[in-house]
Amino acid sequence: MKRTFALLFACAVLFSFAAAEETLYVPGSLGNVFCVLKVPEGEGPFPLVILCHGFGGNHIGNRDYFDFFVSGGFAACSLDFCGGGLFSGSDGKMEDMSVLTEAEDLNALIDRFLEDPRFSRVCLWGNSQGGFVSSYVAAGRPEDVAALVLEYPASVLVDFAKGQRRADGTFPETGWLLGMRIGRGYFEALADMDIYGHIASYRGPVLILHGDKDRLVPLSYSQRALDAFEHAEMIVMPGQGHGFTGKGRSEAMEKELSFLERIR
User: Fold this and answer.
1) What's the alpha-carbon Rg for the chain, to the nearest Å?
2) pLDDT, tens digit, for every residue of 208-240?
3) Fewer CB within 10 Å: C terminus or N terminus of the chain?
4) N- to C-terminal Cα distance for the chain?
5) What are φ and ψ of residue 10, in 5° steps?
């Protein structure tokens, strides 16, 4: 009986100190932004990593990164951009989404977490379009972003949008990208953007990871971003495409955590 009680007590203690996951809804561009937040065990404050998914995705696709950063002693928040993709927990439609609405969502989260005493600083992580948005936001408020981790950031989107411009200078009301319908505002937000000139305003540490087999976002786009940032380094992932898999994925997480630990 005593042994059973002791076991139950031990389990209760472990549960009480376990990192609790929170669900948050923060007002954003097209309604509420859904996100999950997890703070590691122990005494804070902790550095926070905000994870930003790519076009058409949601927070579930980055779940392994989310858990890995928490296990490494970082707080983590993973969001669904408003209208950002399929099976999103956030408000909004994809036809109303653009990189600028996603930037507004991310800015709202940063504002929220900068006021939270549990967090010492904010870092941004993004893949593909999420990497584009993360770098765009960081350049607009460099004093608030301690570090950037970018996986195959999709700067190619600017050229894609330019290609949708009609002879009269306008854009179609709707279009398609990766099999998903988007609206005119998506093209308009990108077509005249000097993304490389903009991101040069961010002078914090940046890590870029890009696969040498990426056919959606050629490696040359990240090489140009590397030149635009003042303090950036790039890791070329051999054999990896647009989205890291297998051993390459686990290696990417380890390299990213090692990078983030430098700013702890």
Assistant:
1) 19
2) 999 999 999 999 999 999 999 999 999 999 999
3) N
4) 46
5) -60, -40
